[in-house]
């Protein structure tokens, strides 16, 4: 306790530089309530008194409080509790009269202690002088104003200028005039070069006091806030801003605008599709703010909008000067199946595939390439829809107008197949000039020709010009007329009954078409393929592409037809088979086909017969099955129709009937024998006695038994 008093007196003596200052200190100390008279509420009112003292006194008082032994607080506590309540009322005027000094904060409050009367020459400790102020009112107000100006009023979220007062390896120390300095990470100054002490920076007060009592500042938040304000403004005004592309992200790029990150979608980078985003990273470009979200403070920028605005200006200028037939220079910017889009310098036009070349092309890429520069002519345009139709082939004369003189009727031309239809094929003689080869002009043969099988796209053929009309721009061509007509001498080379070999070109349900030579052919009817076997379809006997021996059965020169035969190469075997397969004869056969109507049976010598369904029934009621080999009976033989009818049912029915007939015959013979024996017995009976009657009865019973068997 004595130490505390001595220290307090020493501090008071040191602070007494002038009489006026001594009076101020004396007033501040004497105004402190006595411990013996201060109730609990006085502790609360005493704190403002200390806060209102001059700054130097507050600092010294704090030092005194910190050096006081902790036990003083414990000893003072009972005294405070015993102070009468009335002292609170007396202390109030004392507090009101104390000098008002703001913004001095005492770290902790220690209740005042009772000071014993100690003689002192410089400082008066009497309680009755604690409310005395030695400053004149005007001077007090002047000092109060100076003191107030030494402190700054700040709020969380406020943006304020600060001075760099220190630099460390990781942080920047910034003074904003508050009770303490703030630290900001060096990462927030990465865009600043040559940062030094004394520089002024704009920062945001994030938190006046965090949980550790520290001041939290942020330069990045201040920049973001200012950036957002500017972005809001340029979004309304449409002003063009400059941004730095910092990185690539999903679907676009991140752009730093005014220190704030904004999003640049990939579709807004350029008017042309962009696939490589990396080429823009690290570049400074101009943008327009096209969309903002105030809730999450996010902005979308566009570089394409700037390009489109420039293009729109160019488009308006071009459209104002556009005329049909005008020739413009354009660049191929896109190629599709139906044409190509041309950039005419801010305005797009469409070059249809049919207007690219006078000749046929299957795709524009056969003639055009991306970014290719071309001269094109304006065919048509629409001011409202801003559509322009362009032409490329129109810059050159139509090929029919400059057709070479050597192309006339009867001349031979060479062309490439550019289109195939059912009725023929079109040959491109030269770009834009085509001729039709009709199916009737493919071959001299009268047999039908399939154009899609004969021609292939891209193949080249030589043909003779049959007709030519430059006015209608039509030309008919012929391939068969490249050779002489073989039908003029057909009767000499292919006489009736002459034998030849032909190539199977086509097969129909009713016959086979053969080619004997180019332009000469005929047909073999299905019935002329074989004497013995009946085919359901000619393909069961021969295939396309095979060679077959034939005989000429007839020539129709006028209609250009040959009647051909194959079975006629051999003699008709049916004349000799009539005796072998006569009606009632039995032959072994195998069922090769079965349906509801009957079965086809393979017989010896390659013959086939047909057994109706009712003639396929077996003894047990079942029917003959597929691939069964049985004995069949011929029930009909027609040499003219080349037909044999068979029956399996007749075979077993006839066998049963023959068995019955044999049984009847045997019974009849037995009966006749018995009758003879009866007659002999009767004759003997007449000569014998009655004792022989029993033997006669036995004979008669035997006779009746034989008769029953016969029936």
Task: Give the secondary structure arrangement, pairings included.
Layout: H1 2-15, H2 19-30, H3 40-52, H4 55-67, H5 70-82, H6 87-97, H7 137-148, E1 159-167, E2 171-175, E3 182-185, E4 200-207, E5 215-218, H8 219-237, E6 241-249, E7 252-257, E8 260-265, E9 284-293, E10 298-302, H9 304-321, E11 327-335, E12 339-343, E13 348-352, E14 373-382, E15 387-391, E16 412-421, E17 424-430, E18 433-438, H10 451-454, E19 460-469, E20 474-478, H11 490-493, E21 499-508, E22 511-517, E23 520-525, E24 547-556, E25 561-565, H12 574-580, E26 586-594, E27 598-602, E28 608-612, E29 629-638, E30 643-647, H13 649-687, H14 693-710
Parallel strand pairs: 3-5, 13-15, 18-20, 23-25
Antiparallel strand pairs: 1-2, 1-4, 2-3, 4-5, 6-7, 6-9, 7-8, 9-10, 11-12, 11-14, 12-13, 14-15, 16-17, 16-19, 17-18, 19-20, 21-22, 21-24, 22-23, 24-25, 26-27, 26-29, 27-28, 29-30
Helix pairs in contact: 1-4, 3-6, 13-14
What report would you give on this structure?
The protein is α+β, with helices and mostly antiparallel strands and 711 residues long. It has eight domains: 2-148, no CATH class; 159-222, Nucleic acid-binding proteins (OB fold (Dihydrolipoamide Acetyltransferase, E2P), Beta Barrel), CATH 2.40.50.140; 238-307, OB fold (Dihydrolipoamide Acetyltransferase, E2P); 322-395, OB fold (Dihydrolipoamide Acetyltransferase, E2P) (Beta Barrel); 399-482, Nucleic acid-binding proteins (OB fold (Dihydrolipoamide Acetyltransferase, E2P), Beta Barrel), CATH 2.40.50.140; 486-569, OB fold (Dihydrolipoamide Acetyltransferase, E2P), CATH 2.40.50; 574-647, Nucleic acid-binding proteins (OB fold (Dihydrolipoamide Acetyltransferase, E2P), Beta Barrel), CATH 2.40.50; 654-710. Helix content is 28%, strand content 30%.
């Amino acid at each position: 306790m004595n130490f505390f008093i001595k220290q307090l007196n020493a501090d008071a003596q040191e602070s007494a530089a002038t009489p006026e200052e001594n009076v101020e200190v004396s007033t501040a100390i004497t105004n402190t309530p006595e411990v013996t008279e201060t109730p609990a509420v006085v502790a609360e009112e005493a704190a403002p008194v200390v806060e209102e003292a001059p700054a130097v006194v507050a600092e010294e008082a704090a030092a005194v409080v910190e050096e006081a032994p902790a036990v003083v607080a414990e000893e003072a506590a009972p005294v405070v509790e015993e102070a009468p309540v009335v002292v609170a009322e007396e202390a109030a005027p004392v507090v009101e009269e104390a000098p008002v000094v703001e913004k001095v904060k005492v770290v902790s409050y220690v209740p005042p202690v009772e000071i014993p009367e100690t003689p002192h020459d410089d400082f008066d400790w009497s309680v009755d002088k604690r409310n005395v102020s030695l400053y004149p009112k005007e001077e007090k107000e002047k000092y109060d104003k100076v003191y107030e100006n030494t402190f700054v009023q700040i709020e969380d979220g406020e943006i304020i200028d600060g001075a760099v007062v220190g630099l460390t390896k990781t942080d920047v120390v910034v003074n904003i005039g508050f009770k303490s300095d703030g630290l900001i990470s060096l990462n927030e100054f990465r865009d600043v070069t040559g940062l030094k002490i004394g520089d002024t920076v704009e920062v945001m007060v994030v938190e006046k006091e965090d949980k550790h009592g520290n001041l939290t500042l942020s330069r990045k938040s201040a920049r973001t806030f200012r950036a957002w304000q500017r972005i809001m403004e340029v979004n309304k005004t449409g002003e063009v801003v400059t941004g730095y592309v910092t990185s690539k992200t999903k679907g676009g790029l991140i752009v730093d605008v005014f220190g704030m990150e904004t999003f640049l979608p990939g579709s807004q980078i350029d008017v042309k599709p962009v696939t490589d985003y990396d080429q823009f990273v690290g570049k400074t470009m101009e943008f327009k703010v096209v969309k903002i979200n105030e809730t999450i403070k996010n902005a979308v920028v566009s570089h394409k909008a700037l390009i489109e605005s420039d293009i729109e200006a160019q488009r308006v200028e071009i459209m104002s000067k556009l005329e049909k037939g005008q020739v413009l220079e354009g660049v191929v910017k896109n190629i599709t199946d139906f044409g190509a889009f041309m950039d005419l310098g801010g305005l797009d036009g469409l070059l249809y595939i049919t207007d690219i070349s006078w000749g046929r092309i299957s795709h524009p890429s056969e003639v055009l390439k991306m970014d290719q520069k071309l001269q094109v002519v304006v065919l048509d345009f629409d001011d409202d829809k801003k559509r322009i139709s362009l032409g490329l082939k129109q810059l050159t004369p139509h090929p029919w107008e400059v057709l070479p003189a050597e192309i006339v009727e009867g001349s031979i031309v060479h062309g490439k197949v550019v289109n195939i239809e059912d009725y023929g094929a079109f040959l491109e003689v030269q770009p834009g000039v085509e001729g039709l080869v009709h199916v009737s002009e493919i071959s001299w043969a009268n047999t039908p020709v399939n154009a899609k099988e004969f021609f292939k796209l891209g193949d080249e053929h030589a043909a003779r010009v049959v007709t030519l009309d430059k006015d209608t721009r039509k030309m008919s061509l012929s391939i068969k007329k490249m050779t002489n007509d073989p039908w003029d001498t057909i009767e000499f080379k292919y006489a009736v009954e002459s034998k030849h070999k032909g190539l199977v070109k086509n097969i129909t349900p009713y016959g086979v078409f053969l080619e004997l030579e180019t332009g000469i052919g005929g047909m073999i009817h299905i019935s002329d393929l074989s004497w013995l076997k009946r085919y359901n379809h000619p393909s069961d006997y021969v295939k396309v592409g095979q060679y077959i021996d034939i005989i000429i059965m007839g020539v129709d020169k006028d209609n250009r037809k040959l009647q051909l035969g194959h079975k006629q190469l051999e003699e008709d075997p049916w004349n000799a088979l009539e005796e072998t397969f006569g009606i009632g004869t039995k032959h072994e056969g195998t069922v090769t086909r079965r349906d509801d109507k009957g079965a086809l049976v393979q017989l010896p010598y390659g013959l086939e017969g047909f057994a109706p369904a009712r003639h396929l029934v077996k003894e047990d009621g079942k029917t003959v099955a597929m691939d069964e080999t049985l004995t069949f009976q011929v029930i009909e033989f027609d040499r003219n129709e080349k037909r044999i009818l068979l029956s399996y049912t007749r075979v077993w029915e006839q066998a049963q009937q023959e068995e019955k007939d044999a049984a009847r015959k045997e019974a009849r013979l037995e009966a006749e024998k018995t009758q003879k024996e009866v007659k002999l017995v009767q004759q003997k009976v007449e000569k014998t006695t009655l004792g022989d009657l029993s033997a006669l009865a036995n004979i008669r019973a035997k006779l009746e038994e034989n008769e029953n068997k016969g029936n």
